[in-house]
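Quick look at the format.
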Amino acid sequence: MTELVRVLRRLRRLTDDPRDAFAHRLRIGFAVAALILILSLLR
């Protein structure tokens, strides 16, 4: 459980630059979408 919390803290990014925050959210979104696609293709 602590490993999961550590990973989630690394994924969270605190920044004042809106462009950087948007780019980070976009990368995370693409990673999650790719993971969902891979898991759905394996079923």
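Next, a different chain entirely:
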Amino acid sequence: MNKLLLLNVTGFFKQLEERMIADCRPNIANHAKKQYEKYNRQLEALKELG
């Protein structure tokens, strides 16, 4: 994945997590947080390279 796509995906999952916390949907919020962390690690690794 390129850097811009990873940035968009991480932003999406971060927003999803916040929305689901606000809507009292903890299971979806936890899943979104895990996905955010996964893609954020990839984004950080790309930033280290370039």
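The first helix runs from residue 3 to 22.

See the schema section for token definitions.
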